[in-house]
Amino acid sequence: MASDRDILPSWAKPTHYSVSLYDIEFGGGFTYQGTVAVNLNITNDSSWNDIVLNAHQLKLHGATLKLKDASHESKDISYDEKRQRVTLDFKDKIQYTGEAVLEVKFEGTINNIMAGFYRSKYKPKGDVPASVAKDDEYHYMFSTQFESCDARRAFPCFDEPNLKASFDVDLEVPEDQVALSNMPEKETKPSKKSGFKTVVFETTPVMSTYLLAWAIGDFEYVEAFTKRKYNGKNLPVRVYTTRGLKEQGRFALENCHQIVDHFSEVFQFDYPLPKVDLLAVHEFSHGAMENWGLITYRTTAVLFDPKTSAASYRNRVAYVVAHELAHQWFGNLVTMDWWSELWLNEGFATWVGWLAIDHLYPEWNVWGQFVSESVQLAFNVDGLRQSHPIEVPVYDGLEVDQIFDHISYLKGSSVIRMLSAHLGEKVFLQGVADYLKSHQYQNATTNDLWSALSKASGQDVNHFMDIWIRKIGFPVVTVAEEPGQVGLRQQRFLLSGDVKPEEDETVWWIPLGLHTGSSPSSASLHKTGALTQREDTIRDVNDSFYQINKNLTGFYRTNYPPNRLAKLGEARHHLSVEDKIGLVGDAYANSVAGYGATPGLLALVERFQDESEYLVWSQVLTNVGNVRSVFSVSDEISESLKKFSLKLISPAVEKVGWEFKEGEDYLTGQLRSALILSAGLLGHEATVKEAKRQFDLYISGKDKEAINPSLRKAVFSISVKEGGESAFKAVQNEFLTTSSIDGKEIALQSMGRVQAPELAQEFLSFIFSDRVAMQDKHSGTIALASNSKVRKEVWKFVRDNWDSKVYPTLSGNLVVLERFIRFGLNKFSDYETADEIVKFFEGKDTRGFDKGVAVVDDTIRSHAKYRKRDEKIVGEWLKANGY
Questions:
Q1: Domain ranges of the chain
Q2: Share of the chain above pLDDT 70, in %
Q3: Element (H, E) at 221
Q4: Which of 387, 400, 488, 745 falls 20 to 30 Å from 534 in CA-CA distance?
Q5: Which CATH number fits domain 218-329: 3.30.300.20, 1.10.390.10, 3.30.160.100, 3.20.20.20?
Q6: Taking every annotated instance into account, which residue ranges of this chain make up the domain ERAP1-like C-terminal (predicted)?
Q7: Across all residues in the chain, what is the average pLDDT?
C-alpha cells in the first residue's frame, strides 16, 4: 500500500459491476433495496478470509463470494464509519487467485443532502403522475452525485478513481416515470410489483465509479442530433427536465451538439458513447457533474428562457455545458490516477470549455472574461499563505472535496493557458490529442500529459511546468527602469506582503511577453522570451513604451514603477481588454500587498471614466469595491471613496442608459447591468429614482414587464437598499413565487442589500428555513458578507446559531458548509474579528472545512494589515484630490 495515501487492498480489483435497485419507496420513507454483483480479479497468493470495500450509510444484508469451484457466505459484516469501509468476513481461510464474483444485498436511503443517491424537491408545472414522490408542499425527483467519493453512499463498491470497471444498471420504477443512466435503455421488463417496470440499460465502457449515474422522475426532453456522424449515425443529444420546463433547455441543446462535434475534431477522437443526455436537477451542490453520457446540472446552469432569464445566464449555460462536455474526454475517457491530480480534470476542462465558447461566440471576448474572472480569482486565492500547490497530496478520498477550488480549476486553467500560449495552441492541442489516444479508457498522471506535450512540441515541458504545478504560490515581477533597459526581479507574491525567505525559494519560469517600441501602436515582441532566474536585466527596451505580460497570458503579477503605471494608464486606449484588466488588477493587488500603494491605483482608475468595455469596467468596479470594503470601517474615508466612485462611474452610467436596443451585443447589455447596479448602490440620484419607479410598477402588479430580466438584480438590490423592510418583504415574496429559473438566485442576492441589522438577522433566519434549498443558502449569505453595513450580522448569526442551525443544516454535505464559511466570513478587515473566528473554531471538529476556516483567517489578516498600512495615505490622497 502506498504510504502517502489510504487506499483499499490492491489484490481485489473490480472489472465489472451489475447494479440492481428495486423496492424503491416513493411514498415517503425513501428507502430502497439493492443487489450488486462485482466481477473481481484476485491476485493474493497467500490465504485470506475477508474482502474490504467502500460503503457509507448503507446496510448490508449479506454477501456471497463465488469462486470457480466454490462459494463462500459472509459470516460477519463490520463497518468502519470513519473510513467509510465495510469488511466482509468469510471466516474460512481462502487460498485463491483468479476471477471471482462478489454478490452483495444491501439497502440504502435516498437522502436530501445532494450526495450519493438523493432527492430534489420542486414545485411542478402541469399534471404530475400520482406515482411521483411528494409531501404537502413539494414533489421530488431522484438523481445521483458520486464525485468525489459518494458512489459508496448508493451501493457497496471499490470507490477509487483508478479502479475502473464497466457497469450494468437496472432500476425498478413506476410505469409512468422515466429512468435514465449513462447508457441508452436496453429493454424494459415487467416487474413483479403492480404498476412498476424494470428498466435495463446497456453496458457502460470501462470507467471510474464516480462517473456512474442514474435518475428517476417525471421527465420530458427536447432533442437534437449532431451534424457529424458517429459509427455511421448522427448522435442523439437531449436535455431532460421535470415536466413543463423542457423548452428552457433549447439553448443548452443548441450548444451541446455543436460542442460535441467540435471537441471530436479538436481531440481527434470521436465522442465514444451512443448518446449525450443533459439533466436539469432541482437541487445540486456544484454547477454540474460530468457523468459519462448523463451529465447533471443545477437548473440555472442548463436552463435559459430568452423571455425571463437574465442575459448573464446565457453565458453561464453555454460555458458550463462546454466544461462538462470537455470532461467526456478529459476525465472520463482518460482519468486522473488519484485525487491529487484532480487539476488534470478540472484545470483542463475549464480552459478548453472557454476555448469552445470562443469558437461558438467570438463576439463575447471570452479570453477577456477568462482574465477578468478566472485569472484574477485564482490570483486572490493563490496569494494567500493558506494556498496549496495545483497538484496537492491527498491522503484519502475524503480530503478531496476541499480541493475542488479556485486553485484546481482556475489556477490550473490559467497555467494551461500560459503553456498553450507558449507552445502555440495548435501544437498544444496536438499534444492533448496524443495524450488522449495513448491513455484511452485508462488512468494517467500529470507527467503523462507533459510527455505527450514535450513530444508534440519538441520542448522539455516538464522542465518549465513542474514548478508551476508542484510548488505553492506565484511570483510578482518587480520592474526597475534605466535608460534603454529594465531590471526584473521575481519573488513570491503574498497578499499580506510579508513573504519570509523560506517561503520564497522557488524560481519560476516566467514567460515575459515583453512588448516595446517608440509608441504603443508600433510596439512588438521583444526577443527575450522568459525570466528563468531571480533577477535579470533586459536590454534594448525602448522606454517610450513597454509592457510586460502582454494579454496577461503569464500567471504572475507585474509591479511597475509609479510613473510607468501612470504612462500605461495614459496609453490605455492602445491596450487590449486583457492588458487593461491586468493593469488594474495588478495595481490593486500590489496595493494590498504593499508592493505599491492605493493612491497609485486610484489615480490609475480615475482615467477609466471614458472606458467602454464591460470586462474592463467589471475589473475596475470589483477592485474599487474591494478598496471601499476594506476601508469601510472609517466613516470619513468611506464617504470620500463613495464620492470618488460616483464621479468615476457617473458619465458611463448616464451614457449607457436603461434601454436594451434591438440587435445590441451581449457585452453592452452586461455593461448596462453592472453600471446601473453599482451606480444605484452608490446613490446616483437618477439611477435610484428610475430603479424605484420600475420596482413600484413591477411589485404593484401594474406592469409586470417594467423591469428588463437582465436588470432585475440591479433594480431589486437598489430598491432593497433604499426601501427598507417593505422592499425586502416584496423581494422575499418574489423569491417565494417566481417561476423564472434564475429568479430565486437573483432575489436572494438582492435581499442581501438590507441596511438594518434586524433585517439582516431576519434574512439569515429565512435562509436557514426550509423555504431556501440547501444549494442556495450561500447565495444570500455572500451578498450580506459583501455588504459592509451588515456583514457583522453574518458572523454573529454563525456564532450564535452554530450548534442549533448552521452546523446541523449544512454538515451533511461538507462541500456546502465549507463554501458557506469561506464566502460568508472572508470580507472583514480587522484583527479582532479574525481572532474571534479562530477562537470560535478551536476545539471543534473542522474536518472537511478546515481549509475554508484557514483561508478566512488569512484573508482577513491580509486585509487588516493593508488597511492599517494605507489608511492614512488613502485619506490624504482623497482630500488632496477634492473627494
A1: 7-212, 218-329
A2: 100
A3: strand 219-230
A4: 387
A5: 1.10.390.10
A6: 545-861
A7: 96
Tell me, what's the pLDDT at 3? Answer: 65
Q: What is the pLDDT confidence band of residue 568, given thresholds at 50, 70 and 90?
A: very high
What is the CB-side half-sphere exposure of residue 204 using CA atoms within 13 A? 31
d(CA 103, CA 409) in angstroms, rounded, equals 38
Label residues 326-349 b or e (16+ Cβ within 10 Å = b). bbbbbbbbbbbbbbbbbbbbbbbb
CATH number for the 7-212 domain, one of 3.40.50.620, 1.20.1250.20, 3.30.1390.20, 2.60.40.1730?
2.60.40.1730
Quick: pLDDT tens for 116-142.
999 999 999 889 999 999 998 899 999
Residue 324 annotated as catalytic = yes
What average pLDDT score do residues 233-256 get? Answer: 98
Q: Strand pairing partners for 36?
A: 19, 104
> Residue 817 has what pLDDT?
94
166-174 and 214-217 strand pairing: unpaired
| 323 annotated ligand binder | yes
What is the spatial distance between Cα 352 and Cα 324, in angstroms, rounded to a whole number? 10
Query: 348: which 3 cell numbers?
Result: 483542463
Asked whether the beta carbons of 153 and 115 are under 8 A apart, the reply is yes
The span from the CA of 374 to the CA of 349, in Å, is 13
Q: What is the pTM of this model?
A: 0.96
CA-CA-CA-CA torsion sign (418, 424, 426, 430): negative
Cell of 854: 484557514
pLDDT digits (tens, 9 = 90+) for 590-610: 999 999 999 999 999 999 999
Q: Please state the rounded mean pLDDT for residues 546-559.
A: 97
Cβ neighbours of residue 685 under 8 Å, at least 6 residues apart? Answer: none
Residue 705 has pLDDT above 50, yes or no: yes
Asked if residue 359 belongs to a known ligand binding site, the reply is no
- Kindly tell me the burial class for residue 184, based on how many C-beta atoms sit within 10 Å of its own C-beta (0-12, 13-18, 19 or more): middle
